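note to self — DONT lose this again. spent like an hour looking for the file last time. sequence + predicted structure for the chain T wanted, 63 res
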Amino acid sequence: DYLWVYGYGTVEGDYPGYFVYDGREWHRSGEEQFPEVFVNGVSVDHQNNIWLCSDEGIHILKQ
């Protein structure tokens, strides 16, 4: 299982993003890869694409 969080990095002037912990290390979405929205759900499909569901729609990160 993975742990997902939204926030800022630790460097001044850093951008907000989604972080995922895979049990060994943290990974981060790229700058402006996702809109700044409240996420209601996260799912990963069989092609490893990440689907985020928000009140503004569905956002997909193709891996």
